[in-house]
Write a structure and sequence with these properties.
The chain is α/β, with parallel strands linked by helices. It is 37% helix and 15% strand. The strands form four sheets. Strands 3, 6, 7, 8, 9 and 12 form a six-stranded parallel sheet that branches. A two-stranded antiparallel ribbon has the order 1-2. Strands 4-5 form a two-stranded parallel ribbon. It is globular, with a radius of gyration of 18 Å.
């Protein structure tokens, strides 16, 4: 009986990591959360855009002000490998770390975000929906993705066609995750180690599918982390299109200053 109870406790506190490592979930949860921002479209609003759309559509001028505020305020832009070793091993991060992420392969992320990040020496994480690659003039192509990777940005998986993680079953794991991962690795020549949940939605029952595929971490949106697997439920917040730089700074400090777990 004691052995069974001990095994269950160990399972809840730790999760096997790649290369035989074991993640101490309690230690991950005890570390201060790092602000991770999520952007989608970077374009001017249209008359047809509804208020809820403006959560996901940020005018270029506003985006530029967001990035300038981060730089002027002394934020240091980090990448997923740095965040992973901090959460898992406690490796120190630079002062005021922040991560900038971009979802869905939108071309304006290359045209608008890339030069603005380069201006301040920032790097970003691009979660790619592979069916959108070269889909039309509004999306990035293979050459642009390769260039982003070569410049030190991170290219990561966001499924094939944005199917909700909660709906995946059977052959979906191959179609939505395995094939897109291999495709991105072929384009960039680099391993794909990180995943973002479409719509930010996830369920605990399927997180083991990401572990089995060798992903180091996965990113959701603004939901509590899973205490049994916080490394696969890292929180992000939207860089809303109607937020001023002051509002963004406030939300970074207050939202990630709190401990949020189930």
């Amino acid at each position: 009986m004691f052995k069974i109870v001990f095994t269950l406790i160990t399972f809840c506190l730790c999760w096997p990591a790649p290369a035989g490592r074991t993640i101490d979930n309690a230690a991950v949860l005890a570390r201060k959360q790092v602000p991770v921002l999520c952007y989608h479209q970077i374009r001017d609003w249209r008359a047809s855009d509804k208020q809820r759309d403006k959560d996901y559509i940020i005018p270029p001028a506003t985006f530029r002000m967001h990035v300038k505020m981060l730089a002027d305020s002394g934020y240091h832009c980090i990448l997923p490998d740095e965040l992973y070793t901090y959460l898992v091993d406690g490796t120190p991060l630079p002062p005021k770390p922040v991560m900038l992420t971009f979802d869905d392969t939108d071309g304006d992320q290359y045209q608008q975000a890339r030069p603005e990040l380069m201006k301040y020496g920032f790097k970003g994480v691009y979660f790619i929906t592979t069916t959108n690659i070269s889909k039309n003039k509004h999306y990035m192509d293979r050459k642009q993705l390769r260039q982003l990777a070569d410049e030190g940005n991170v290219i990561a998986c966001h499924t094939r066609d944005h199917l909700s993680f909660n709906k995946m079953q059977g052959a979906d794991w191959e179609t939505q995750i395995d094939k897109p991962t291999r495709q991105l690795e072929k384009i960039t020549g680099k391993p794909v180690k990180y995943f973002a949940f479409p719509f930010g939605l996830w369920n605990a029952q399927h997180l083991d599918e990401l572990h089995k595929r060798g992903f180091l971490a996965a990113f959701q949106l603004d939901q509590p982390r899973d205490p049994n697997d916080p490394i696969m439920t890292i929180r992000r917040i939207l860089g809303c299109g109607y937020w001023s730089p002051k509002t963004l700074d406030y939300n970074i400090k207050h939202d990630f200053g709190r401990t949020r777990i189930r």
